[in-house]
Amino acid sequence: MVRFRYWKLTSDEVKKLTHNPDKILNWEIKGIRKPENDAIFIGIFLYRNGTPFGYEAVNGIVYYHNNIDRNELPGITKFLKERFGGEEIDKGERIFLKNSKEIYTGKEIGELAEEFDAKFNIESDISIELADVTQDELNEWSYPNSKLLPIPGK
Distance between CA atoms of 133 and 1, rounded to whole angstroms? Predict the structure, then answer.
């Protein structure tokens, strides 16, 4: 299986992507709050085949946090649950929304990043990993060659 990973994409770049949603393996929106040296960040991600949780895979959107005041977590969870539903499962620095709605289009991911940035005063970049695609398809779908991150061994 040939895989391609793009990183440090902006929400504007992602909204313009026209990929086949079935080709997405995973995506991540990582939001950092200024100043960066405080290491305050929130990330949202989705793995097509589920996120490891103990010895099983849980389907649905997950978010993680670092150096966030715990009083902010209910607001982040509410923001995501209103959009995607799912059963909330708290596991340390990760909150799972089990069986939530899953999104894979560039427009949906880019718009989520913009809303997330505005609501939680963060600046995001986006990573997307695709499988079983050709370089020609990626070019046709508007993926920027400059943001292709090599996957070792692939």
Answer: 9
> Residue 137: left (phi > 0), alpha (psi -120 to 50), or beta?
alpha
Please give the Cα distance from 30 to 20 (Å, whole number): 23
pLDDT in tens, 35-82: 777 888 999 999 999 999 989 999 999 999 999 989 999 999 999 999
pLDDT for the residue 2: 82
Enumerate the domain spans of the chain.
Answer: 3-129
Compute the Cα dihedral for 101, 107, 109, 111 and give only its sign: negative
Indicate whether 154 pLDDT > 70.
no
Starting at the edge strand found earlier in the chain, the sheet holding 87-91 runs: 87-91, 94-98, 62-66, 40-47, 24-33, 123-131, 3-9, 148-149
Within a 10 A sphere around the Cβ of 58, how many other Cβ atoms?
Answer: 20
Q: Which residues pair with 91 in a beta bridge?
A: 94
- Which two three-digit tokens encode residue 9? 């994409």
